[in-house]
Specification:
Keywords: Signal. This protein is mainly alpha-helical and 100 residues long. It has one domain (2-89). It has one helix at 2-24. The longest helix is centred in the first third of the chain and has 23 residues, at 2-24. The mean pLDDT is 79.
Length: 100
């Protein structure tokens, strides 16, 4: 009888141990701070061939608005997609997409 009680107690403690540790894992949810995001700026000057100041209102500041994380689109320039499709069998002979 004592042996059964020891085995049942040991089994119960073994099953309760993960439950005791699981309560300590609950951490409060932290708010996301946009100021902690590290931004790597790509320093490429783009020449459009015309003066953009003529087309913008006076005192125009593109950075004066409220920044939303959802409004940021991320485009990875390093990803190249190869479709590995031979289109010659699907297009008519002498097809040139650049001829209008």
């Amino acid at each position: 009888m004592v042996r059964k009680n020891v085995i049942i107690t040991a089994l119960a403690m073994t099953l309760m141990t993960p439950l005791a540790w699981a309560q300590g894992l609950n951490k409060p949810i932290e708010d996301f701070d946009i100021n902690t995001v590290e931004f790597v700026e790509d320093n490429q000057d783009i020449e459009l061939g015309f003066d953009t100041a003529q087309y913008l209102p006076e005192n125009f500041d593109p950075y004066s608005g409220i920044v939303s994380v959802k409004a940021i689109n991320f485009i990875d320039l390093c990803d190249e997609v190869e479709l590995n499709i031979d289109t010659d069998g699907y297009l008519p002979a002498g097809f040139d997409p650049y001829i209008q």
